[in-house]
Amino acid sequence: MKDLAELARKEREKEQGRQKRKKVTTLIVIIAVIALIAAAAIVAFTVMQRRDYEPPTPEPGVQTITLSDEVTDLETPLTFRLMPGNYLIGTDIPEGVYDLKATNGDHGYVSTDISSYEGGINELMGFGGTDYLKEFRNAWLVKGEVLQIEGVELDLTTKKCAPSVEARLPDISDQTFIDGVTPVEGVYTIGNEIPAGTYDLFLLEGSGWIYCETEDYSFSFYQFFSTDPEDDGFPAFYHLTIPEGTTMEVNDFEDFKLFMRASTAENFLKSE
Amino acid sequence: MYLSTGDAQGSYQVLDCIFAFDTCKEGLLRGSAPGKAFEGVKNQLQNKAKQLGADAVINCHFEYHSGLSEGLNPKKIVEVFAYGTAVILGEKK
């Protein structure tokens, strides 16, 4: 009898072991299937998000642009990450041919005076926004032009460039605010409360936006300042030239504190 | 950039109809801000117009919708839509 009981107990243990193994195997299979579905979804999403764009060949009769003789192929491509702002080509970044890639910001606008059809750039770009280019290839950035970046952060990778010019990119960590103003929420007239000039705008705290416009609408500027990626905002804007007479509205969103530093950029904006 | 919910005075050349959309979600310590979404959508209209070479957007229409975001902790979300006509002022209609 004792042997029979022992045998029955062993059989029960074996059966329990089999059931346990079966459960573990089922669990592993379920996890594997979920992981496979997740991986497939990520791949599909990435493919959908990818939006490459090659600018069209200039049409016959359209004036083509040329780069200086200094521009040459580099063994190792250079990459610059640019915050929204105005960058003087040949001074702030080297003249050259670049691939542009949006890294932050959904609804941006990137332009030079030379249009995409002539080899320059004039495109809506964004990291996640629909109908906005995520990448743009072969933008010819010619010395003396201003690259204007609004509402998007970009990685610029050289195809070829003038290696003698070092990129002079503003540093967000540079907190040496020598000369500037900290406007609180309200409406200002540039030339009265705040001097006209070129400024680097830095977010000190919180979030909010500024809106600038001249009476004749020849100049306007808007940016939401924030460090929260969900806000579609940025912590800085570089080299903003605000003409005299501009009305500037500062709007608090959440404890907004902005600093406008007189820009150190020399001979900026040829259009001035 | 001239942006108007009405027509422009004088003549103009129509370039295209443009559309923009922006949202603003309620934060942990702050409410949703329709004003931010409105400014965002105006800025997008201006950028789209600039890309086309326009100097004004006329007959702008703005619409909004508010609702709750998806997820375990739904937040109030305000969506603003806008469309208008991008034009070059001072040229023939």
Please give a quick description of this structure.
The complex is a heterodimer of chains A (272) and B (93). With 272 residues, chain A is of the alpha+beta class.
Rg for CA atoms of chain A: 28 Å
* Termini separation of chain A: 106 Å
* Global shape of chain B: elongated
CATH architecture of the largest domain in chain A: Sandwich
Percent in helix of chain A: 10-25%
At the fold tier of CATH, the topology name of chain B is Translation Initiation Factor IF3
Keywords:
heterodimer; A: 272 residues; alpha+beta; Jelly Rolls; 2 domains; six-stranded antiparallel β-sheet; five-stranded antiparallel β-sheet; 37% strand; elongated; disordered C terminus; B: Translation Initiation Factor IF3; four-stranded mixed β-sheet; 4 strands; 46% strand
Annotate the secondary structure layout.
The complex is a heterodimer of chains A (272) and B (93).
Chain A lengths: L1 H48 L22 E2 L5 E4 L2 E4 L7 E9 L3 E4 L10 E4 L9 E7 L4 E5 L2 E9 L18 E2 L4 E4 L7 E17 L6 E6 L10 E7 L4 E16 L10
Antiparallel strand pairs in A: 1-9, 2-9, 3-8, 4-7, 4-9, 5-6, 5-8, 10-15, 11-15, 12-13, 12-14, 12-15
Chain B lengths: L1 E2 L8 E14 L8 H19 L3 E13 L7 E14 L4
Parallel strand pairs in B: 1-3
Antiparallel strand pairs in B: 2-4, 3-4
Structure write-up:
The complex is a heterodimer of chains A (272) and B (93). By secondary structure, chain A is an alpha+beta fold. Helix content of chain A is 18%, strand content 37%. Chain A has 2 domains: 2-21 and 50-56 and 65-161, Jelly Rolls (Sandwich), CATH 2.60.120; 180-262, Jelly Rolls. Chain A is elongated, with a radius of gyration of 28 Å. Chain B has one domain: Translation Initiation Factor IF3, CATH 3.30.110.70. Helix content of chain B is 20%, strand content 46%. Chain B is built from 1 helix and 4 strands. In chain B, a hairpin with a 7-residue loop joins strand 3 (56-68) and strand 4 (76-89). The relative contact order of chain B is 0.37. The chains are: A alpha+beta (272), B alpha+beta (93). Chain A binds chain B through residues 107-109, 111, 122-124, 150-151, 209, 211, 217, 220, 222, 224, 228, 230, 232, 251, 253-254, and chain B through 1-2, 20, 22, 25, 27, 29-30, 33, 35-36, 39-40, 42-44, 46-48, 50-51, 55-56.
